[in-house]
Each structure stands twice: as structure tokens, then as C-alpha cells.
């Protein structure tokens, strides 16, 4: 029930996500008191205010019910809301996102790398600036509502493969970069 999470600050364009933070993800049906005594004691130590918080599930130690928990177990694309450029990257199954990062599941027929090539392109950035809101400082707000409107071209298989290969090379080079 301890899962890795990424925060918005962890997300870079074609980034190499390496979660450094973990959360206790005790969904409804998980009995922390009975099955995870050490975790129960740790959570209990936060006091009565924590145990009576509003966003809880069946028991005070459970997360509130959420329709998309299972989506975290799939390949997904993540990005952040406030940034001056597209910062889309892939995220492995089993890694959760905090509310400072958005995610989408690739629709059937589209590979993650093909979508990353499109989403991180200058054409999408140009289009995005036409349709999206900005912050008070003029930085584009990459809100899911607008990202969902992006036109995804149905390119021939050879073009798709070339884009997928380029993205794979970029990601591989970033993994080899010691930062």
C-alpha cells in the first residue's frame, strides 16, 4: 500500500521520472489496523484532526473513493499545469500523480511515444496558445480541458514509427544524462 508518486516539479519534457516520494495508498477495503500495524501506528500519531479529516473512505485511514485509481496501474502521459512550454512525459504503471500533475491514458491505437511527439511539438504549443487560458503572469495553463481538445493526426505507419523512434532516443539520452 506504499506507492511511489510524482509531483509537478518532477515532470520535464521527455523526462526520466524517478519518484523520490511515496504515499500510503490505503483504498477502501484495506484494513490498515489489522494488516499493517506499523502504518496504523504511524498514521494514528498524527492525532485526532487527521483521523477526522473530511476526505476519507470507509475508515479514517482509507483514501476517499476515486474512479481512476486503477488508471495509475497503466502506462500514462503526465504534464504540469503552469509552464511556458509543453512538458509531457511518460509515466510507468504503478506510479501515482499528486494533484500538481495531470495525466492521460493513450487512447487505443496510439502509442505513448507517438503522442509525446505530438504533444511536445511546436505546432501543439502554437495551437494551445490560441485556445487556452493563461495565468496572471501570461504563462499558459495546461489544463486537461484544453489538452483534451488537441487534434492528434492519424499519420501513416512509417511516419508514426519514425516519431516513436525519435522519442525513444530522446528518452534514452535523458536516462543516460547524470543530471
How many DSSP E strands?
6
**Would you identify the regions where 5 or more consecutive residues have pLDDT less than 50?**
none
| Class of secondary structure makeup | alpha+beta
Distance between the termini: 30 Å
Q: What helical percentage do the residues reach?
A: 25-40%
Specify the biggest β-sheet.
Answer: 3 strands, mixed
Oligomer: single chain
Average pLDDT score = 90
Gross morphology? elongated
Using the CA coordinates, give the radius of gyration.
Answer: 19 Å
Summary keywords:
alpha+beta; 179 residues; three-stranded antiparallel sheet
Task: Describe this structure as you would to a colleague.
This protein is α+β, with helices and mostly antiparallel strands and 179 residues long. It has helices at 32-35, 37-44, 48-51, 112-119, 122-131, 144-147, 157-176; strands at residues 2-6, 21-24, 76-79, 89-91, 96-97, 102-104. The strands form two sheets. The protein has a three-stranded mixed beta sheet, with no helix packed on it. Helix 4 (112-119) crosses helix 7. The protein starts with a strand and ends with a helix. The mean pLDDT is 90.
Amino acid at each position: 500500500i506504499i506507492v511511489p508518486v510524482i509531483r509537478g516539479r518532477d515532470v520535464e519534457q521527455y523526462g526520466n521520472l524517478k519518484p523520490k516520494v511515496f504515499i500510503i495508498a490505503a483504498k477502501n477495503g484495506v484494513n490498515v489496523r489489522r494488516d499493517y500495524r506499523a502504518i496504523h501506528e504511524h498514521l494514528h500519531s498524527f492525532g485526532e484532526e487527521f483521523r477526522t479529516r473530511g476526505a476519507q473512505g470507509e475508515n479514517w485511514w482509507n483514501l476517499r473513493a476515486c474512479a481512476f485509481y486503477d488508471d495509475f496501474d497503466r502506462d500514462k502521459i503526465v504534464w504540469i499545469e503552469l509552464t511556458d512550454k509543453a512538458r509531457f512525459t511518460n509515466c510507468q504503471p504503478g506510479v501515482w500523480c499528486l494533484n500538481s500533475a495531470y495525466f492521460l491514458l493513450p487512447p487505443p491505437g496510439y502509442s505513448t511515444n507517438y503522442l509525446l511527439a505530438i504533444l511536445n511539438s511546436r505546432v501543439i504549443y502554437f495551437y494551445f496558445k490560441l485556445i487556452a487560458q493563461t495565468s496572471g503572469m501570461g504563462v499558459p495553463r495546461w489544463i486537461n480541458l484544453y489538452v483534451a481538445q488537441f487534434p492528434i493526426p492519424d499519420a501513416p505507419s512509417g511516419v508514426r514509427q519514425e516519431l516513436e523512434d525519435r522519442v525513444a532516443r530522446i528518452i534514452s539520452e535523458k536516462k543516460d544524462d547524470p543530471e
